[in-house]
Structure formats: C-alpha cells, structure tokens
Amino acid sequence: MSSSGLGLGDFVDRTTAVKIVGGFAIALVILALIAYGIGIEKIRGELARADPRWLAAGCLSTAVGLVAWAKAWQVVLRVVGYRVPFRKLVVTYYAATFANYVTPLGQAGGEPFIAYVLSRDTDASYEDSLASVVTADLLNLLPFFTFAAIGTIVLVVRSTLSNQIRGVAGVLVVFAVGAPAAAVVGWRSRRRVGNFALRVVAPVARRSRFVSVEGLRDRMRELNTAFERIAADRTALAHALVYSFVGWLFFAMPLYFAVRAVGREISLFLVFFIVPASTLAGLTPSPGGLAGVEAALAGLLGTLGGFTFATGLSIAIVYRVASYVFAILLGGIAAVYVVFRS
C-alpha cells in the first residue's frame, strides 16, 4: 500500500457527496412515481409474498460474481508485474465497485477512479492500474454480449420479439459489433490517438502548475507499455476471460432468483437477454442507473415474460436489492475498511 495512505477525501469530496445524495433522492422520487402509476398496493402485495430465501440466493450470487471479476482483475495485474494478495484485492474491488455504483454516471466511465483506488491501495502505478482496469472491463464486454446474443437468438427463434424489443435487440447487436471494432481500431491506432489527446490537452497543461505536456507524454508512454505487456500474454487474457464469464453468469442469476422469489417462473435464456438489455439503462444519469434500470426491467419483464407491470416492477425491485443495494452495502463496508487499512 502507498505509504501516504488513503484519506476519506480521496474517495469523496463535499461537492461529489451532494451530487450523490441528490442523484439518489431524484431517482427514488422517480421510482416512487413509477410505482404509484402502476399501483402501490399491487406492488406491496407482491413484495409481501416474496420468499427471502430466493433473495438471499440472489445476494450470494452477486457476491460470487464480484469475486470472480476481482479474480480476473488479479490475473491481468500479474501480467504487468504486480502480485497483489487476492484477499486484499477483493476488498479493493468491492470498494471501487461501491464508488462506481453510488456516483452518477459512474457506470459510464468509472475506470480512471477505480484505477486511482487500486494504485493508492497497492504497489501498482496509476498507469498499470488503469491498463489493467480497462483491459478487465473490455474482457467483461465479451460475456456481456455473448449472453445477450444467446438470449436474442432464442427469442428470435421463438418469434417473441415485438417491434419495440427488436429495437433493443438491435442496439445490443450494434454494441456487440461496434464495441470490439472500436477496441481493435483504437488499439491499432493507439499512437495516433495518444498524439491527438496530447494536442487537445496541451493548451490546458501549459497553463497549469500541476501538469506538463512532457509529463503527460511520459504517462501515456507508460500506459501504452502496460497495454502492450497485457496484450502480449494471451494465455493470461484467456484465463481472465474465464473469470469474466463466470462473473457475468452470477451477475445475471439474481434476476432469475428474483422471479422465483415472487413465485413466478422464467427461462434462463430470457434472463440472458433482459439483464444486458436493462444494463443499457444503467447509463442514465443517476447512481447505478437507479429508476432507469427498474423501469426498463419492468417493461421488458412485462413485454417478454408475460407478467403484469406490477409483478415486473416487484421483480425488478427484488433483483436490484440483491444485485445493487447488496453490492453497495458490501462495497461501503469495504470502502471504509480500505480508508482505514494500515
């Protein structure tokens, strides 16, 4: 661990705290309005009958999924020369997940912050941390789209896709093709991309006392070196990819358990489509996509699962308690531990 230690201010300042609290407040109000429009009493009745054993299974699945993703992280870190004890890295990963889940738009671009947490809590440099985090996230995209593709193919074969859902499936296909293509193009053009980035930030750097163009160039050179070391070890990447797939499987399963919790049934193939599709709603400007994900889940479950919207939103709430609220609670404990860890 860095000798300077971590302070609470490294995780959140007053402005960020206000944004987080405000984001949660607005999202909860929106969620309450959605529930009111569907029928509070109907939703309350569904939730009252929910089996807590299935909820517990969903929480356990979330915990296992995050541990698997932390393991993928560890594999990638080893490639760049850092052997962090797994027990320590799991706690760091949970703390970083907490920061990602509570920050508005954190899901859309939390890698720099996660890399910062990792570099401060281990011996890894920021550049190596960022390269490992970005690589692990890119690896996680493959199982994301694989599960989505499996679900989409099954739904197409069964001809159960409405025009609206076909649009969602189309977006997933675009992401499935576009994201890997963008990654390949970015990798092959990494030097030109880096030079372009330097030209963009150079005017700001020249007016700043804290950064310099030469310093930025050195950091980008170190980052590129880290990426090249990772890309050269295909065995390690394949090893990490296995853990990514395991993590995604356990990330999706809480939805299945949530459906069982309210006494209903659902196909796993449908789960494999709905979870990635609803994750796109996580890009909404609220902490963890709160309200947006629940609304998307209720709509998808109602349209594809044949549930009423009251049942769909009830399932979404149980699912989010198991996959989001539970992760925040565990991550919050981990964040406190990381802050005060000696």
Rounded average pLDDT? 78
Roughly how many Å is the radius of gyration?
A: 21 Å
- N-end to C-end Cα span: 8 Å
Number of helices: 15
Q: Give helix and strand order, one letter per element, not per position.
A: HHHHHHHHHHHHHHH
How much helix, percentage-wise, in residues? over 70%
Notable characteristics:
disordered N terminus; 82% helix; membrane; 15 helices; globular; 342 residues; mainly alpha; transmembrane
Descriptive account of the structure:
The protein has helices spanning 8-11, 14-38, 40-48, 52-79, 86-102, 106-109, 111-121, 126-157, 163-188, 190-206, 213-232, 234-261, 268-279, 292-305, 309-340. It is 82% helix and 0% strand. Helix 12 (234-261) crosses helix 13. It contains 15 helices and no strands. The protein is an all-alpha fold. It has one domain (8-340). The relative contact order is 0.17. Mean pLDDT is 78; it is low at 1-8. The protein is globular. This is YbhN family protein. Pfam families: LPG_synthase_TM (PF03706). Keywords: Cell membrane, Membrane, Transmembrane, Transmembrane helix. Belongs to the UPF0104 family. It is found in: Cell membrane.
Topology:
Elements: H1 8-11, H2 14-38, H3 40-48, H4 52-79, H5 86-102, H6 106-109, H7 111-121, H8 126-157, H9 163-188, H10 190-206, H11 213-232, H12 234-261, H13 268-279, H14 292-305, H15 309-340
What is the compact description of this entry?
It is found in: Cell membrane. By secondary structure, this protein is mainly α.
